[in-house]
Amino acid sequence: MTTIRTTHLSPSQTTCGSLLLELQKIWDEIGESESERDKMLLQLEQECLDIYRRKVEKTKKYRADLRQTLNEAEIEVSNLASALDEQANFVQKKKSTLNEQLTAIRPVLDGLRMKKQERIKEFSETQSQIVRICAEIAGNIQSINSVNAQVNERDLTMEKLGGLKSYLQELQSEKILRLQKVNSYVKTVHELSAVMSIDFVETINEVHPTLVDPAHGQIKSISNDTLARLTGLIHSLNEEKLQRLQKLQDLGGTIIELWNLLDTSVDEQKQFEHVTCLISSSLDEVVRHGCLALDVIEQTEVEVERLKVLKASKMKELVLKRQNELEEIYRGVHMDLDTDAARQILVSHIDSGNVDLADLLSGVDDQIVKAKELALSRKDILEKVEKWKYASDEENWLDDYEKDENRYSAVRGAHKNLKRAEKARILVSKIPSIAESLIAKVKAWEIEKEMPFLYDKVPLLQTLDEYIVLRQEREEDKRRSREQKRLQEQFATEKEALFGSKPTTKKPLGQSSSANTLAGTPVGRRVQTPSVRPGVSGSKERRDSGKGGTTIPLNYVALPKG
Question: What is the pLDDT of residue 235?
Answer without folding.
Answer: 94
